[in-house]
Amino acid sequence: MIPELNNMTTKLQGGSNLLRVPEPADENDVLREQLEYLIAHVSEQGICGCPDCERYLRVRSVLLEIFSEPEPTRAQQLAAMPMAA
Ligand SMILES: [Zn+2]
């Protein structure tokens, strides 16, 4: 028998408690780091058009989605729509 394999199996079987430990904090940290990295990149040299800038723009549009105004064309359409009399 290979002792290492035995060890792994034992860990997997006995380590069910590990699955209950929430680990989203790690991912959130990564999100924050990425966001800070992208913001720093853009604020340092502006939008230079590199993949990082594209990521920044994508993330930014998603994060600012809830703050974005309704599209003016739509508002105009609504305003121009004749009320049924
Ligand atoms: Zn860039």
Class per helix and strand makeup: mainly alpha
Q: Give the termini separation.
A: 86 Å
Bound compounds, each kind once, are:
zinc ion
* Count of DSSP strands: 0
**Biggest beta sheet summary:** none
What is the arithmetic mean of pLDDT?
78
Shape: flat
Q: How would you spell out the order of helices and strands?
A: HHHHH
Radius of gyration (CA) equals 25 Å
Low-confidence stretches: none
Strand content: under 5%
Q: Into which percent range does the helicity of residues fall?
A: over 70%
General description of the model:
The structure is a single chain. It contains five helices and no strands. It is mainly alpha-helical and 85 residues long. The mean pLDDT is 78. Helix content is 72%, strand content 0%. α3 (24-45) packs across α4 (51-63). It has a domain at 25-64. It starts with a helix and ends in a 5-residue tail after the last helix. The site of zinc ion (ZN) has 5 residues, from α4.
Short description:
The chain has about 80 residues and is an all-alpha fold.
What layout of secondary structure does this protein have?
Layout: H1 3-14, H2 16-20, H3 24-45, H4 51-63, H5 72-80
Helix pairs in contact: 3-4
This protein binds zinc ion.
Zinc ion binds at residues 41, 48, 50, 52-53.
Primary descriptors:
85 residues; mainly alpha; 72% helix
